Predict the 3D structure of the following.
Amino acid sequence: MLTEEGTVIERNCGTPQGGVVSPITANLFMHYTFDLWMTRTHPDLPWCRYADDGLVHCRTEQQAEALKTELQARLAECRLELHPTKTKVVYCKDANRRGKYPNFEFDFLGYCFRPRHVKRNRDNLVFCGFNPAVSPAALNAMRQAIRALKLRRQTQLSLQDIARTLNPLLRGWIGYYGRYAPSALYPLLRYVNVTLVTWARRKFKRFQSSRIRAGQFIQRLAEIQPDLFVHWELGMDGVFA
């Protein structure tokens, strides 16, 4: 293994975290450990897997608990184990499944799946469905990514400079998380707008004493130049205070 300092370290087992070969070998191992095993032993159960994160759909709680026990034994044979806190049986509660169970939501690939009120397109009927939306953990990670840029104090930058920095991030996040329940992204987009308002207060002396005027300034920009930021262009401008 070659370190960032240029030092070569010999390895006799495992692969370095972040290495190119690591995800390839992990997926190959999981293919034989889990994928083929599920296909062979439980051909009637739908399942999906991404890297080491997966879901299996069962018909009853008893079936799910039995599968969990079998899977624990299978992974133990392969010197693996289920995550003690992330692995759980979840009841997919909706308008047709109205039972009461302790677990009725889960996170998968940045989405939170849980009971939500949704509107049916053909007749605008509102009902309870078990649907995905961006998870609170993913929202927090995106806010932290923006915070790490320290844009609020970058007063030497222009608004166009900030847009060039933020737009690739926003375009990717909206493209991925905006496919289902895009309104769940509004807290993040509000955070972006508030970041711009705080930047404007530090950039321009006339706004230093008035958050309201700074917010109105950024809001007018969103109306005049909607193509400046990705979320403005998509009409997801949100609020500015």
